[in-house]
Amino acid sequence: MHIYSPPLRDISFALYELAGLVRDSYFPESEENASEVITAVLEEAGRFAAEVLAPLSRSGDKEGVNLSEGQVHTATGFRDAYLRFSENGWNALSCPVQYGGHGLPRLLSAAVNEMWKSANHAFSLCPMLTMGAIEALSLYGTEAQKTTYLPNMVSGHWTGTMNLTEPQAGSDLAAIRTRAVPHHDGTYRLFGEKIFITWGDHDMTENIVHLVLARTPGAPTGVRGISLFVVPKYLVREDGSIGSRNDVHCVSLERKLGIHASPTCVMAYGNNEGAVGTLVGKENEGLKYMFAMMNAARFAVGLEGLAVAEAAFQKAKSYAKDRVQSRAIEGSVNPVAIIHHPDVRRMLMTMKAQIEAMRGLAYTVAAAQDHASHHPDISVRQQQQSFVDLMTPVIKGWLTETGNEIASLGLQIHGGMGYIEETGASQYFRDARITTIYEGTTGIQANDLIGRKVVLDEGKAARHLLLQMRTTLDEMTALKDSQWEECVRQLARGISSLECAIDHIVGHYKSNVQSVAASGVIFLKLLGIVSGGWIMAKAALASGKQIQAGSTDGFYRTKIETSHFYSQHFLPLAPALAEIIIHGGASVLFVSTDEF
Hints:
Elements: H1 8-18, H2 31-63, E1 66-68, E2 71-73, H3 78-87, H4 106-119, H5 121-140, H6 143-155, E3 158-163, E4 179-182, E5 188-198, E6 207-214, E7 227-232, E8 234-236, E9 242-245, E10 248-253, E11 264-269, E12 275-280, H7 286-322, E13 324-327, E14 335-337, H8 342-374, H9 378-414, H10 425-432, H11 442-455, H12 460-478, H13 485-508, H14 513-518, H15 520-548, H16 554-569, H17 573-590
Parallel strand pairs: 3-6
Antiparallel strand pairs: 1-2, 4-5, 5-11, 5-12, 6-7, 7-12, 8-9, 10-11, 13-14
C-alpha cells in the first residue's frame, strides 16, 4: 500500500518561484544561509511526515479514540509521535521568538504544515488549533496570560483549543448561552456546554488551554455581548506549575464520518463550582479576538484541502500504475496498467493541475501574511493585508471544495476497490468531507467574501488583484510565442469574466442583496479558479525562463504542460460562472420555500 511521500520538489518550486521565499522574506541570516535553513527544515519535516506521522494515519483511523473515566485516550502511537513532534521544535516553527519560537516565515510554516496534514490529517489538527490559540493570545492576551501560557504552548508542552459552538447555536454565535460570572478574585466562573471541540481533551500533554466564548452578566444581546476567556484544563499556580483540575470536562465524543483519530468533544463547563477562567482583553469584544484565531484556522483548513488532495493523488497515481486491467484503447494485445487509459489520465491530470494551482495560491497568500506583518513600508503592509483578507475565504472555501472533488476522483480511479476500506482511498474521501464545513461552511465563507471583502471596500482589493493578473497576462503575451496562445486567450477570458462578476456584485449588492448572495459560492469558485489560472500562468513563465536559460530538467516541461491543461480544462468555466452570477442569482428566489 502506498505511503505518503512529501512532494519536496513541487513544494520548493511553489515557495521560490511562485511565492518568492528568501527574495522577499525577512530572515536575520544572509540569503545564502536562509536557503540552507529552508532546505534543512523542508527535508527534516518531510522525513518526519513520511516516517513518523504517515504510518499512524491508517492505524489511527481504524482504532480511533475513546473516553474512559473522564479521560480521552488517543490512538496507539499518537502520544509518542506528539512527544517527538514537540521535542523536535516543530510546534514552534513560526511562533514569536520571545516565547521560545523560531520566528520563521509563515510561508515556510505553511509548506511544513501541508506535509503534516497530508501525512496524518487527524494528528495535524492538534498543533493547528494550538497555533490559532497562540495567535489570539499573542495579540490580545494580558501580560500575565502570555507569561503563563505562551511559552508552554509554543514549546508544545501544552495544547490549545477554541470553544465556540453550542448545541442551540451552531454557526450563529449570537445565540451562545455559556455564562461567565465574575469572581471576587478577578477571575470568572464559566457555566455552559460546547460541542464539536476538536482535540478538546486528550492524553498527549499535561495541560490543555481552552479559549472560550461566553457572556458576562448584563452583556448586550447578540454578538456584541460576547467575551473571550482562557480556561485551562488544569489550573496553573503562580510559579507556573500544574495545579488542581479545573471544572471543565469532556462528557462525550462524537462518532464521525472521518478523522477518527482526532477527538471531537462535547465539553461541559461548570458542572460543579464553575470553570475558572480569565478574561482576554475587554468584555464584549471576544468575537474580535476570536477572529484572530478563526482566520488562522480558516487558512489552515484551506491547507487541509490541498493536503488531502495531494495524498489522494499520490495513492491514485500509484494504484493506476500498478493496476492492470483491459487492453489499451488503441488495440494492444495484452491488458495494460490503467494509467494508459485516456480517462484515467484525464482524472490524474485534473487532480495534479488543481493541486499545483491550490498550492501556489495558498503559498502566495502565506507570503502576503509575512509582508503584511514585516514589510518596512506601511502602505505595502496595508495592501498585502487587504490581499490576505480578500483571499482567506477563497483559500478556506475553494481549496476545501476542490480537495473534496479530488479525493472523490482518487476513489473513482481505484474503481470498486476504492469503495473498499482496505485500499485506504476512502479514508481521504471521508476525512476531506469535514473541511468544507468546520471553521465556517463554504456558504459562510462566500458571505464573508462578498459582504466584507468585496463590497465593503467597493471592490478595491479585488480590482488590485485583477491588475496583478493582467501584469502576468501581459508578460506572457509579450513573449509572442505560439505555445502560449491558448493560455493567453483563456486567462484573458477568465480575468474579464471575473471583472464582470466583481462589477455586478459591487453594483447590485445594496439594491438586491438576496440575489447577489444566492450566487456567493459561485463567485467564490470563480475567484478561486481564475486565481488558480493566474498562478499556473506564473508557473509556466517561471519554467519557461529556466528552459530558456538552458535547463534540460523535465520537471519544468511538465510544469508547462500542466499549466496548459489547467487553462484548457478549468479557465473555460469562468465565463459560464460569471453568467450564473450576473443572471442566475435571482432565479433562486423565484421559487417559494413552500415548494421545496
